[in-house]
């Protein structure tokens, strides 16, 4: 990428679509006009061509290696974002089951997933953090459990409130479903604990447009033959993610991101260490600010991806966002539904960007406290 263009890139704290690794963007730029061996752009080749099948197969192989996805799980690259999964999960896994779907409501996204599931069948809310504005998580022992549940749905990281399960929850025999959209690929995850995981790509895994589903093969049997084809996991699995034209460019970019994680970062454990180090810099500023910065999440479930906090007034929130922007720290405004500040510090946000934000926060406090 031309160096003068790179110099204009700001530190981007957007919650998604979010920052992508510079070396990934540079490789995509190099290959943009002619994808090696094809004489055309990756945007211009058939999804049934051998070149694209190689891209798709490679993305899946790398993802399986990176996440150590066990045999007996199918990986799907779909479209429709995580929101379509809010519906596809109950359409495929709740219809014709004897028990209800159980939802753990830890924030906005879990709540929205639950609303969609209600359209498909019986739902039981096993925990709801609304009373404390979704600032905490339940411990697994506090979840009501009914043995015959069709599945239990959690959101590993609530992007808007900034609360995150610190580790994979254990739920016994219940099929666990996880919306892992905003912490996918940020740390190792024990896939075998889950019946199904899904994630939209536009936080840690690539551009908007591709959604990753990892499903235990046995669960594919639950997809009713009467489901519309696109909405059936079984149809997608049978077609190897080529039921229809997939988001080809998104799959290509996802493949590059996964390779970046393997080759440049050194895997998910290394990524996790970096992410912990980045998040702790910001939480330390919050904790030493004597209440100037008020974090939303309880300390034991603070998100390593989305750091959410407020200043003493809405006016100061506005001034913070405006001044940060003029210092090259952009997209820090909290989600429109909750206000305040949100620093999304996904994988591709560099340590130097987080350090610059931490320094700006201390400086802003000293000028405004
Ligand atoms: N779940 C979570 C945890 C999210 O953060 C988001 C998007 N911010 C969604 C679901 C919805 O994703 P999409 O817009 O791709 O449907």
Task: Walk me through this protein's architecture.
The chain has helices spanning 3-7, 22-31, 50-67, 81-93, 108-118, 233-238, 248-265, 268-287, 314-326, 351-368; strands at 11-12, 73-78, 101-105, 123-128, 151-155, 157-158, 163-164, 176-179, 196-200, 211-216, 294-295, 306-310, 329-330, 341-344. With 369 residues, it is of the alpha/beta class. It has 2 domains: 3-21 and 267-368, Aspartate Aminotransferase, domain 1 (Alpha-Beta Complex), CATH 3.90.1150; 27-263, Type I PLP-dependent aspartate aminotransferase-like (Major domain) (Aspartate Aminotransferase, domain 2). The strands form 4 sheets. The chain has a 7-stranded mixed β-sheet. A 3-stranded antiparallel β-sheet has the order 11-12-14. The longest helix is centred in the C-terminal third of the chain and has 20 residues, at 268-287. It is globular. The structure holds 4'-deoxy-4'-aminopyridoxal-5'-phosphate. 4'-deoxy-4'-aminopyridoxal-5'-phosphate (PMP) binds next to helix 4.
